[in-house]
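Hey, I was hoping to borrow your eyes for a little while. No rush at all, and the record is pasted right below.
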Amino acid sequence: MNVRVYKNADAIGAAAAALFAAQVIAKPNSVLGLATGSTPLPTYRRMAALYEEGAVDYSGVTTYNLDEYVGLDHDHDQSYYYFMHDNLFKYINIPEEQIHVLSGMAKDPAEECKAYDAAIDAAGGIDLQILGIGRNGHIAFNEPTTTFPPTTHIVDLTESTIEANKRFFASADDVPRQALTMGIGSIMKAKSIVIIATGADKADAVYAMINGPVDPQCPASVLQLHPNVTVMLDEGAASKL
């Protein structure tokens, strides 16, 4: 792991966006793995700014998002499809047909997951994947458990994840209880990974990810086994290293 510490989230966003820009400039038809939540927002803002400045052309890029809530259609304002369009895609020039987000309304969720993994493989795999980390060490919606899920799958969300996400809904009761998510094995296939953590409340999870054993009780710890991971932390998240 290449661990880098920055003063704040905006500095991380600028640095992470520079990595994505370098990837796309070097390989205009890059396949990017994207994430939702508050963590990547500074990165997405800077990616949009680089496009606006004429520094990067995203028209050849294909994207695959990590996850989606079960039961929310793409028009729902809390769906991750909606989130990505609202925070990134409407500001850059990736063609709609090259944007991929799991369907939370799929009639056959298992088939949806299988087809998603197959589509990523057919695209040549993800060149650069961005991740956040939960306070319990989860990545995407892969919660602490007894094994590392190998493929994209349906997952029951833990109470801690529901609690963390309730701020986006009217109440905790409105937060979906399940999600479709890329599995640990799916994520580990990415050629390069950037994982971002900000805030002292992530410090324990960051310590376990970097210095703890590789253990599915801290799903992010599996990244110790990946050959090309950049960890971007602010001072709070790095405070226990």
About this structure: The longest strand covers residues 192-197.
